[in-house]
Amino acid sequence: MRAASAVAAVVLAGCPFEHGEKPHDAVPGDGDGADGDANAPQDAKPDVAIDARECPAAPPDCTLFTCASSTSCYYVCGDTTLNSKKNWPAARSACAAIGTGACIATIHDQAEQDCIVQKAMPSFPMANWIWFGYRQPSGTGEPLDGWAWECGTSTFTQAPWGSGATGSEPSQTGEEDCAAMTTGGGWFDASCNDPARYLCELP
C-alpha cells in the first residue's frame, strides 16, 4: 500500500495544470488509453462564466464600458466641454471608425438602457446629453413617423417616448430628427446638428 501511495503522489506532483483545466496541447486519446472515448469522464465546468469580450481600446475622449446584459462593447465619447462633442452625423462617423461593425448605439431592452444610464451618466445641463442611434428621416410626419435605428433592429423605446401624452417626446417641433438621452435616461428629440456627447457600440 505504501508503494502504491508513493507512485500516486509522484503522478499527481507531475501534473502541470489544476483540476478543472485542460492543458493547451492536450489531444484526446494521446497516450491516455482513452482513444477519445466520448464516454470518458469530463472535468466539471467552472461555476462562473468567463467574459470572452475583447474590446478595442477607447479612442481619445471616449470611455469604454460593458453591460452584464449584453455582449457588446460600449464607448461614451465627448467631454464636458464643446471640444470633443459632435453633431449626430459626425458622431455616427466617429463610432464607425472604432472598428469593424461599430456603430452609434442601438438599445434593445430595459436592462441595457439602465446600464447605459448608470455608466454614461447623461444629463441635460451643458449639453451633456448623449446621442444614440435612433433617428427620423428628414421630411417625415412629425412627431412620430419614420423613427428607426441606424444599425440593426430593436422594438425598444424608453417610456413615455411615443405615448402622445402632453409634454411627451418626441415633440411637435419640426426637424428635430435625432434622439438623445438626458438626465435619468429619458429620451428626447433634438436637432441633429447640435453638438453633444455620443454613445458608440461594438456588438
Q: How does this model look, in words?
A:
The chain is an alpha+beta fold and 203 residues long. It has a domain at 62-202: Mannose-Binding Protein A, subunit A (Mannose-Binding Protein A, Chain A, Roll). The protein contains 3 helices and 8 strands. It has helices spanning 2-13, 88-96, 110-120, and strands at 62-66, 73-77, 103-104, 130-135, 148-149, 178-181, 187-190, 197-202. Strands 1, 2, 3, 4, 5, 6, 7 and 8 form an 8-stranded mixed beta sheet that branches. A hairpin with a 6-residue loop joins β1 and β2. It is globular.
Global shape: globular
Which architecture of the domain at 62-202 per CATH?
Roll
Structural class: alpha+beta
Poorly predicted regions are 1-34
CATH homologous superfamily placement of the domain at 62-202: Mannose-Binding Protein A, subunit A
Average residue pLDDT: 81
Brief characterization of the structure:
The chain has 203 residues and is of the alpha+beta class.
What key phrases describe this protein's structure?
globular; alpha+beta; 16% helix; 8 strands; 203 residues; Mannose-Binding Protein A, Chain A; disordered N terminus; eight-stranded mixed sheet
